[in-house]
Write a structure and sequence with these properties.
Homodimer. The protein is built from 14 helices and five strands. By secondary structure, it is mainly alpha-helical. The longest helix is centred in the last third of the chain and has 30 residues. The structure holds tryptophanyl-5'AMP (TYM).
């Protein structure tokens, strides 16, 4: 199993946590799990070098604080394993221009930046993602709903390579947990919570001041009815709050609906704000402690990279051979 996350913000948000990281923590128990902080992906948009370095460390600390255990999984930074970029090149040469042009995340981001400013790196982003996955022969890739199309491309590329050059890659399956696959923006529950698209009021950042997060929950956009009921179509705001509540407490949504029968939106929001505070407060404490010891973080990453590289190098050697590169003497 493999998954990745970008170190592109000062903090992960609740969508990252509920859609992906929480699954990673669970799946490390049962799978041979590789988790990658994708810094090569992070430079596909404008970035500040010093902040990227800092954010990469903060990312590792948050993943460990969320429950990743370096004894159970392999946690590493993408740029520490050069095979990712090397395989990406080979896959670039198998991807159609039109095929890459159909990636909706690229179209959205490119449109936001303006066609002249969007980079070729942004265009080939999903192909690098395919390389991340295929290098480790992953069967399972735990992600949120927004990654489905990239996973489809990865599967197509694996099948294409296998068909053209002989069986080489495992064709991976996305692992998308329906209930939490798309956490919505609190202010605009028609769009997903996202570091690039959400307004500050719409996004819960795990490392933000808990009081500020509580306030955002209390100010979440809902609807003009009164009934607390899960209905994605007609009540996306309330449904999103119920999803978050249920995911953080383990209480099924129907039970929450029963608990809140006859109560108001304000009651639900107040209680959920407390649930969020109770979740992020110890999380922040663990993250701070981990960040106080960067030596240990770097050692975890060095061990992770070494383990990842062994497998990545093996796959890349087969790929280079299959495509006909002359081996160096
Ligand atoms: P990134 O960093 O944008 O997102 C990391 C993970 O968080 C999930 N996610 C969400 N899930 C539910 N609701 C949301 N609102 C929400 N927002 C984000 C994403 O689906 C993702 O699982 N392209 C990947 C990074 C990547 C990767 C890989 C993933 C690079 N290589 C290989 C898997 C395998 C991404 O979007 O990261």
């Amino acid at each position: 199993m493999l998954s990745g996350i970008q170190p592109t913000a000062d903090s992960f948000h609740l969508g990252n946590y509920l859609g992906a990281i929480r699954q990673w923590v669970r799946l490390q128990e049962t799978h041979d799990a590789f988790y990658c902080i994708v810094d090569l992906h992070a430079i596909t948009v404008d970035h500040d070098p010093a902040r990227l370095r800092e954010r990469t460390r903060v990312s590792v600390a948050q993943l460990l604080a969320a429950g990743l255990d370096p004894e159970l999984c392999t946690l590493f930074v993408q740029s520490h394993v050069p095979e990712h970029a090397q395989l990406a090149w080979v896959l670039n040469c198998l991807t159609g221009f039109g095929e890459a042009s159909r990636m909706t995340q690229f179209k959205d981001k490119a449109q936001k930046q303006g066609a002249e400013r969007a980079t070729v790196g942004l265009f080939t982003y999903p192909i690098l993602q395919a390389a991340d996955i295929l290098l480790y022969q992953a069967n399972v890739v735990p992600v949120g709903e927004d990654q489905r199309q990239h996973l489809e491309l990865t599967r197509d590329l694996a099948q294409r390579f296998n068909g053209r050059f002989g069986q080489t890659f495992t064709v991976p399956e996305p692992h998308i947990v329906k209930d939490t696959a798309k956490i919505l923006d609190l202010q605009e529950p028609a769009i997903k919570m996202s570091k690039s698209a959400s307004s500050p009021g719409g996004i819960i950042e795990l490392l933000d001041d808990p009081k500020a997060s509580a306030k955002k929950i209390r100010s979440a956009v809902t609807d003009s009815e009164r009934e607390i009921r899960y209905d994605e179509e007609r009540k996306p705001g309330i449904s999103n709050l119920l999803t978050i509540y249920s995911a953080l407490t383990g209480k099924p949504v129907p039970e929450l609906e029963r608990d809140y029968a006859g109560k108001g939106y304000g009651d639900l929001k107040k209680d959920l704000a407390q649930v969020v505070v109770d979740f992020v407060t110890p999380f922040q404490e663990r993250t701070r402690k981990l960040l106080a010891d960067p030596e240990t973080l770097d050692t975890i990453l060095a061990n992770g990279a070494e383990k990842a590289r062994r497998i990545a190098a093996e796959t890349l050697a087969v790929v280079y051979d299959r495509v006909g590169f002359l081996p160096p003497k």
